[in-house]
Specification:
Number of helices: 1
Low-confidence stretches: 1-8
Mean pLDDT: 84
Strand order of the largest sheet: 6-3-4-5-8-7
Number of strands: 8
Length: 101
């Protein structure tokens, strides 16, 4: 059954399409996080929020930081206790790349 959507140019008709079974859980954020964690494990970082900046720790290396080119590099406080990442790089410090909450 079509639904109406109001926009700046007036009303348009949108057709509601059933999702295929492979996309039936795309809005379940808990499931998406579980899949990311299982796929990237053991690349897990523990987050401890401090007053100024969050402290990131791995079991293997201890203190790590987000790589300066990472989108999470400017985040000072995280809303979760864990991050997962795909790559770890050692230069002047140990950095994680491609991290997500």
């Amino acid at each position: 059954m079509p639904k109406l959507f109001g926009g700046f140019e007036g009303w348009i008709e949108l057709e509601v399409v059933d999702r295929p079974p492979s996309l039936s859980h795309t809005e379940d954020l808990t499931l998406v996080k579980a899949v990311l964690c299982s796929g990237l494990y053991p690349n897990v970082v523990t987050v401890k929020n401090a007053k100024r900046r969050a402290k990131l720790m791995t079991e293997e290396d201890g203190k790590v930081e987000c790589h300066p080119s990472s989108v999470n590099a400017s985040v000072s406080q995280f809303t979760t206790n864990f991050l997962v990442y795909s790559e770890k790089v050692k230069t002047s410090s140990i950095f994680i790349r491609n991290s997500t909450m």
